[in-house]
Design a protein that fits this description.
This protein is an alpha+beta fold. It is about 20% helix and about 30% strand. It is built from five helices and eleven strands; from the N terminus they run βαβαβββαβαβαββββ. The strands form three sheets. A five-stranded mixed β-sheet has the order 6-3-4-7-10. Strands 1-2-9-8 form a four-stranded antiparallel β-sheet, with no helix packed on it. A two-stranded antiparallel ribbon has the order 5-11. It is globular and about 50 Å long.
Length: about 190
Amino acid sequence: MRAPIGNFDEARPAPDCLDLLAAPVADAVRRWRGTVPAEQFLYVDTDPAIADTAVFVEHHGAELLEQSANCVVVAGKRGGESTLAACLVLSSSRVDVNGAVRKQLGARKASFAPMDTATGETGMEYGGITPVGLPGDWRILVDAAVLDVPHVLIGSGSRRGKLIVPGKAFAELPGAVVVEGLGLPSA
């Protein structure tokens, strides 16, 4: 099947590719019960050497910058307590960590989580972290702009491979909170 976005050789329904996904992502796809059928989550094989956004869009199509999203793990701190959450914003923007994230987490301070914390807590590879399959008690802050994109390219839990997911499905992820203005224009 042809991917609805980007220049990929082939796209396959994610439920047919569970063995290619990180374990927590495969479990989430297997258990998905949202209004968008799991068969509409597509897997595309990609080269892990070009997984970083700038190189990736150069290779697979510049239009992907507006059709892909980055998922970052953040840590909010207040009174010695730390809360982990994920933020999903379009790749053409950056996460408003000091404004929207702090407010949503009720934190005095918020920052990107260290790489070993992000990978250890998610069970995913750095550079491939995705909102699909995150720990069930996490909040997933989703920039409202992501929901307006018909098909969004995201990580698959590893640096090899990506998922293409209908944007509206992100509002149905466990722990999802849609936030206006979570993504700020990139400098």
